[in-house]
Amino acid sequence: MTPGGHSFLSSAPFRSVLLHGSIVLLLALLFGVLPEYHSGNLARIMVLAVYAMGYNVLFGYTGLLSLGHALFFAAGMYGLGLTMYWLDASPAPGMLAGLISALVVSAIIGSLALRTTGVAFMIVTLMFAQAGFLTILLLGEYTRGDEGFVLQQADRVLFGFDLTQPAVRYASALMLFSLCLALVAVLVQSRFGKTLVAIRENEERARMLGYDVLRHKWLAVIVSGTLSGASGAAYALLFGYAGATFATVQYSIFPLLWVLLGGAGTTIGPLIGTVFMFYLIDISSQFTSAYLLIAGIILILLTLFAPQGLAGVIRKRLIPWLP
Amino acid sequence: MTLLATQGLSKHYAGLQAVESVDFALQEGEIRALIGPNGAGKSTFVGMLCGRIPSSAGQVTFDGRDITAMPAHQRISLGMAYTFQITSVFARLDVHENVALAARRLPDSSPQRVRRRVMEALEQVGLQDRTDTLAGDLSYGHQRLLEIAMGLVQSPRLFILDEPTQGLAESEIESFKNLIKRLSSHTTILLIEHNMDVVMQTAQRITVLNFGQILAEGSPSEIRANDAVQSAYLGSG
Predict the structure, then answer these.
(1) Which of A212, B58, B95, B166 has the CA that lies 20 to 30 A from A58?
(2) What distance in Å separates residue B120's CA from the closest CA in chain A?
(3) Confidence of residue A5 (pLDDT cuts 50, 70, 90)
(4) Residue A209 in contact with partner chain B when CB distance is under 8 A
(5) Closest chain A residue by Cα to residue B154
(6) How far is B77 from chain A (nearest CA, A)?
(7) Could you tell me how many CB contacts below 8 A there are between chain A and chain B?
(8) Would you call A210 and B150 a contact, using CB atoms and an 8 Å cutoff?
(9) Side-chain half-sphere of B166: how many Cα atoms within 13 Å?
């Protein structure tokens, strides 16, 4: 932002609070307005948007394209799911286990995969995620493999609130989403976030300004992976199911599509992209069983005419300060 | 006091010897020019000084410390700054942020202090009115000046500039020469330069590199009178 001389009202922190606060407020109000079917969808979308936001930290802000984020999503999902299912843990320690699991997995995968760059990085992350998926199948005795397992309604009570109740579920999803949105909004304005952008824009220059590029990338993988894991854990907790499908390649591609559609490197892009894609599939599947074809065509059109994504277009045409 | 020195520094690319066993020493506070015909190994040599290019053999010491095995970013943290031969800025970020990225890495970088340092550096190169312009939208000459500002703002102990005046207009070259002279009071400067006018007017000593080896070293007048240098530049016929 412009140095000096500007009022607080046009300062980056104030604008950031205003923008992100309005979005959270809007989402809260929508619950009262929307019919139950759509508010149920929106709860799911908010949880998945956290996954997209995590992906965006690495892809949109650091410039690293991973094809293996399903591994981090699944690490969170099974971290929570297995401790609740096998150890009878309650949701709070379950959530903690999910976060720690995703953090540890992303720290390890990051330290290995970051030895490569570019296309090799994409392939290595893809391979690790496949290995993770196969491990889940291999340990079918505990994970129930493809079939997965259901978390019982009675166990899904957090601080006395029944998470299977639509209103509670919506509020929980909104709280998680708001927390992660605030985290990302602060992160991208911070010195660390600005360094990530510098690495995305010109890695060699950033290194020759004295920044430890590898360490920054590694931390970005950890933040990205842990946010993805938070989404996976919350998904299992709020919707009561964990299964190996969530560790497949498809679930690594989804966040990439959401972020591309919504606008990579913008804080609100992931939410926009997730909403858009969710309803694109939801609506087109009402008309035809070939709904993926329709989704595919619209995706192609969008990448042709708005390659910077929906929020990217907004930034370019309307609000240049969009963080 | 010797700020930077190399012993037997070499770089081999699959049999090609780009730099061959160079012994080099730079005194603190000196302005040194590194010249030589195209392909003499100048950029490779300074690339090994700042860690951008790994050396094949030899040793680099900075401020009495062996830094041969040290990665580039740590060498920069010790107080080196480097500008690229081919301009390298953050094209999609604005001018202020480009310089701020360089300034933020310094100790004691509160936002106010960073802002002040950035404005000082931009004023020194004459870009203080362009803070909001995207670096990629600047003219080529201004991008070079921006890169110099990114070096200046770090208040480096050693400032390595790889062909800084390439693409600058005459008037900009004039102010560049003045800038270098002003800087020399608190910074050691190593300059790769093709513009002999700039070299002769700014450098206190000149090192001539040819086929990866030091051909000659001395004051500007000594170098001007050196027969070996003449024949390397003009061909020995």
Answers:
(1) B95
(2) 13
(3) very low
(4) yes
(5) A209
(6) 6
(7) 65
(8) no
(9) 14
- pTM assigned to the model: 0.91
- For the record, the structure tokens of A282 come out as 């939801």
Write out the CATH class of domain B1-78+158-237. Answer: alpha beta
Position B234 confidence tier, pLDDT thresholds 50, 70, 90:
low
Q: What is the pLDDT of residue A320?
A: 84
In tens, the pLDDT along A229-267 reads 999 999 999 998 999 999 999 999 999 999 999 999 999
Average pLDDT of chain A is 91
Cβ <8 Å between B105 and A211: yes
Judged by a CB distance cut-off of 8 A, whether residue B76 touches chain A is: yes
Phi first, then psi, for residue B116 (nearest 5°) are: -65, -45
Domain positions in chain B are 1-78+158-237, 80-155
The beta-carbon neighbor of B105 closest among A4, A204, A210 is: A210
pLDDT (0 to 100) of residue B235: 60
**Distances A67 to A2, A73, A118 between C-alpha atoms, Å:** 36, 12, 11
In a domain, A312, yes or no: no
How far apart CA A27 and CA A165 sit, in angstroms, is 18
DSSP secondary structure letters along A252-268: HHHHHHHHHHH-TT-SS
| Nearest-neighbour CA in chain A from B219: distance (Å) | 30
Task: Tell me the one-letter amino acid at A95.
Answer: M
| A74 lies in some domain | yes
